Amino acid sequence: MPAILWLWFWLKEDSKKPEPRGLLTISFLAGMAGVLVVFPLEKLAYDNLSTKLLPLIISWAFIEEFIKYLSLYYVDLKSRYFDEPVDALIYIITIALGFAALENVLFIIKPLQSGEVITGLLTGHFRFMGATLLHIVASGSMGIAIGLSFYKSRFIKRLYTFVGIIVAVLLHTLFNFFIIKSDGQLTFTILSVLWIAVVILFLFFEKIKRIKNPIT
């Protein structure tokens, strides 16, 4: 439900020319499916890097963001409905929220199955405020890069996309690193920074909505 609420908010921002619900649904499900691909890859990374905290966190962040980008590339970027710059943000955020939805369920279900309802609710609240926001902001940076380069040359598009993925991995890494290293003591500060990042993302969203085809 938190993921659906966030999705509703972002889709309202593109209400003048809404995307096809079918493609949005497929994108959301693709994000969920990405979790099933990510978990074994992250376990493999853990088995090889468990004694090296920072490389492990970077590898986890890269795996998650790159899988989300692949979902965007194969499901949305090749679609005939991907026809304006802001679509990149809409679709990648939809994918990110699908990813966050299933990931959150898997984190919450264990304490609930053990009868630890309060722990489950607290975990859900934190992931709604923290992890879900992180997925929106980190993956949104890819959407910003792709949106800004929508009318540019193929080389520039690839360059922007590469930079967008790097920024997404960097943001994801920083969040996880400080959460782990602070042992939860900097949670409020980190969440405050995330909310600021959401505001910045929203400003970019509005900027990209106004980008026009230079040819016309």
Describe what you observe in this structure.
The chain is mainly alpha-helical and 216 residues long. The protein has one domain. The chain is 81% helix and 0% strand. Helix 4 (86-113) packs antiparallel against helix 6 and helix 6 packs parallel to helix 8 (187-209). The longest helix has 29 residues, at 21-49. The radius of gyration is 17 Å and the shape is globular. Mean pLDDT is 86; it is low at 117-125.
Please render the helix and strand layout as text.
Blueprint: H1 2-12, H2 21-49, H3 53-77, H4 86-113, H5 117-129, H6 131-148, H7 154-181, H8 187-209
Question: Oligomeric state of the chains?
Answer: single chain
What share of residues is helical? over 70%
- What is the C-alpha radius of gyration, as a whole number of Å? 17 Å
Beta-strand residue percentage: under 5%
The SS-based structural class is mainly alpha
3D shape: globular
What's the pLDDT, averaged over the residues?
86
Poorly predicted segments: 117-125
Order of helices and strands: HHHHHHHH
Distance N terminus to C terminus?
41 Å
User: Describe the biggest sheet?
Assistant: none
Q: Got a strand count?
A: 0
Number of helices: 8
